[in-house]
Prior knowledge:
Layout: H1 2-12, H2 19-25, H3 67-76, E1 83-87, E2 97-101, E3 104-110, E4 118-122, E5 128-129, E6 131-133, E7 138-141, H4 150-153, H5 158-161, E8 171-179, H6 183-190, H7 196-199, H8 201-206, E9 213-217, E10 220-224, E11 234-238, E12 242-247, E13 250-258, E14 265-273, H9 277-307, H10 321-351, E15 354-357, E16 363-366
Antiparallel strand pairs: 1-7, 2-3, 3-4, 4-5, 6-7, 8-14, 9-10, 10-11, 11-12, 12-13, 13-14, 15-16
Helix pairs in contact: 3-10, 6-9
InterPro entries: Rieske_2Fe-2S_sf, Ring_hydroxy_dOase_asu_C_dom, Rng_hydr_dOase-A
Region (Disordered): 23-50
GO molecular function, one term: choline monooxygenase activity
Amino acid sequence: MALEFLAALARWGVGAGGLNTKLRTAGGPGGTGGKAERRDDDCTADPDNDPVMDLPKTLPASWYRSAPLYALERRAVFLKAWYLLGPVTRFLPDEPVRYEIAQVRLCASRGAGGLRDVSVVDEDTGLPLRSYITSSGLVFSTISGDAPSFVEFFPDLEPLLARVDFTRLPHRRSIRYEGKFNWKTMVDGYQECLHCQYTHPSFSVNYPPTFYSVSNHCNFSQHIADPAKPDDGLFLYFFPNCTLNVYGGGMSSFRVCPTTEPGVTRMEFDYYHVADGAEFESYFAFVRQVAQEDFELCEKAQANLEQGVYVEGVLNPDKETGVAFYQQQVLKLVVAQHEADKQRAGLMREAGPMPVRDGAGRHALCVQKATA
C-alpha cells in the first residue's frame, strides 16, 4: 500500500479526472485506446514547453481499483464529512430511515416535536451523531466525531439553499441498487457535462451543455445549466458523495456509497415532487432515464479502468473544473491522512509496547503493529 501510494504521488502529483477523459483515452466511445496518456518512458515530450503538462491531470487509475487506497480514503475523506440525508419531509413519525455510508450504519427518525424534530444515531453503538437542519429544511449528518462543524464544512451553503423551501416537497419514492464502478467514477460523471450531449439527449434539450458551467465553493459545487438563467433549476454536489437536483417541479438526490470492494458502489436515490399520480410518474420517468444513462456510462468507464490500459489523462481546463475541484480535494485529504498515519506509526514505534490490563486485571503487553 505505502509503495503504491508514494509511487502514485511521485508520478501524478496533483490530479483530477472525468468520465469523458477515461472513455476517450481508454477505448470508450471515440476512444484512442490509451494513446493520450503520458508515460514515464516518453522521451519525446519537453516538460518545459509542453502545454499539456500545465493542464490538470487525472487521479491515477489505480485509485479506482485499490482496496488499501479506499481504506485510506475512508479515514481521510468519509469520516470527516457531512452528508445530505434529505429534506425534513423524508422523515415521518414512527418510520425510521436507515442509511449506510462508508460502512457506518445510521438511523434518522422524527420525534413528536414536528417537522424539524429529526435526530440521527449510529445504529451499531446507539450513540447520537451530529446532525444539522438548514433554515430551508434540509437534514445533514456526520458519521463520526472526526468531522468539523457544519458551518466550518459548508461556510457559504445556506444562502444558496434558501432559494428553495424544501419543506413543501413531499417524499414520493426511494430506490437503491449496486453498480460495478468505483464511487469516484460516478462523481467524475456528475461533476462535468461534456458527456451530456451524446449520453443525455433528453436532458440536453432543456439544458444545453453549450452553456453549462460549474461554480466551486467550500466542499460543494453549483452546476449552472445556463449562466443567463441562474435561477432555472438548482443542481448541487456536496463533497464527497451527495447530490441535490431541483428542476421540473420536483427534486431528486442521490448518495454514491462506497462498499468494501473498490469496483462496487451502492447508489441510493430519493425522489420528491409537489404532485403525485401521473405528473410525478412523468417526472420520475425522465429523471430515471438520465440516471440509467449515467449508470451505464460509469460501468463502461470502470471496465476501462480495470483493463490497466488507461493510466492518466488531462482535463479540459474550462469544462471539467468541477472534476478537478473535487479530485484535488480528495488528493489533498488523502496525502494529509497518509502523512498523519506515518507520524502516528513512528510515535508508536518510539513508545514501544503499550501496557494494558488483561482480563484478570494484571498488566500485559499489547504490541500494536504500525502500518505506513
